[in-house]
Fold this protein.
Amino acid sequence: MAMDGGDLTDAERRVWAAMPAGTRTALAGLPAADLRTMLLTVSRDRAATARPPDVIRRWREDRFVRPAGADPRALAQVEARMWQLLPADVSGVELSPVVPVGTCSVVAPVSQNRIVTTMRASEVLSDPTNALAIEAAVRRRRSDEVHLAAAHRVLRAQDFGPGTSAHFRLFALVSSAPDAGSGVTQARLLIRHLTYWRTVLAELAATAAPRLHVTVFDDQAVRERLTDTVRPALDGSTVPLVDEPERERGRGYYTGCAIRITLQGGSVEVGDGGLTDWTAQLSGNAKERCLVSCLATERLVQCADRRADAAHAARGGQTPDERFRAGL
């Protein structure tokens, strides 16, 4: 296998340049079990040199391991209600913290550099929708259609900027069903997901000006079903469904249609989703249709808390921050 370095980042190129010639090729050619054995040995040797002060330092400095800032009690209450609001035919799945290596990058245009890969042919879960899509493809062998949900803390390797966490909780939905032609299946799945998110937002974030956004990517059948089927089914809601034709983010990742969930009149994004070809790829059946969507529950809780604090302050009360500063 030719390895000329053209596929490497500057940091990777620097590291491999410091290794003896042929090291990368030799490691890439090792059987998977032998490579894991070697990496585990290196990890054991490095762990043997670590001391308690090193662990404390990493706890303070490593964004991958620092605890989240969310109140787990408020988060648990919100997610418990979200589970209660799910339709009865949606199966809950308690996902593993790790999934097969390539779970995201094999079916979607996602760099493996954004994912925390382990030494055991697995990767830390970075998106529950990808894992649920695998489970959906497996279950579709014995079911006409599959609807799954999961709530999970995910870890992502990319840096989201100051004050943000590398890990956060997502509540995810994945539906997979056979194609019925003319965008009928896609419309039915869209109605199912959008109706659920509308119900969640109306109950848990009604005062935060929630919105659902929809974008069609070059799929005329889906565009027509959105007009004559999806929109009429969602009429009359206090949570508006807003067209977002200018959206380009997600094109190529989602197929045909993308959705977005926002608060505060569209200024704060709390969720995303869209039609994908993931279960089609995983099952080898081009007629398979799949819709995924998710909501960041910590962000939902934070926005709801801020709105509640502002409303309380407007009535003359003190916010938690004010009570803390006053020593109450």
